[in-house]
Design goal:
Elements lengths: L9 E5 L9 H11 L8 E6 L5 E7 L4 E7 L14 E4 L1 H8 L15 H4 L1
Parallel strand pairs: 1-2
Antiparallel strand pairs: 1-5, 2-3, 3-4
Protein name: Mobile element protein
Pfam families: TnpB_IS66 (PF05717)
Organism: Sporomusa ovata
Length: 118
């Protein structure tokens, strides 16, 4: 299916700014060279520009890359600008991001890691 991103196992967000002139090859090179990740893995890679009103999502679908692009007409994405180059996020955090919220919600109920408790 064309662009069925719900099948992605991991979501990675590129913190900071990305040159939004980059296309599929340029974004795949960032994933591979800067983040030391495989752009062909079953993952979504999210990028945002300096103005934070545009987002690109790169996804390998098995037979080719899908590049999704979203431009907000009003408002900005609450994109993390931390020192981390790339970080893994959940689908819930991705939804928050698309809804204009920060992915770090201090009052959200977090899942408990059972292994850390025992």
């Amino acid at each position: 299916m064309f662009g069925d991103i719900s099948k992605a196992e991991q979501l990675y967000i590129a913190c900071g700014y990305t040159d939004m002139r980059k296309s599929i090859d340029g974004l795949a090179a960032i994933v591979q060279q800067n983040f030391q990740l495989n752009p062909f893995q079953n993952s979504l890679f999210l990028f945002c520009g300096r103005r934070r009103d545009r987002m690109k999502v790169l996804y390998w679908e098995g037979d080719g890359f899908v590049l999704l692009y979203k431009r907000l007409e009003g408002g900005n994405f609450q994109w993390p600008r931390s020192a981390e180059a790339v970080r893994s996020i959940t689908y819930q955090e991705f939804r928050w991001l698309l809804e204009g919220l920060a992915i770090d919600q201090p009052k959200a109920v977090k899942k408990v890691n059972i292994g850390a408790i025992i």
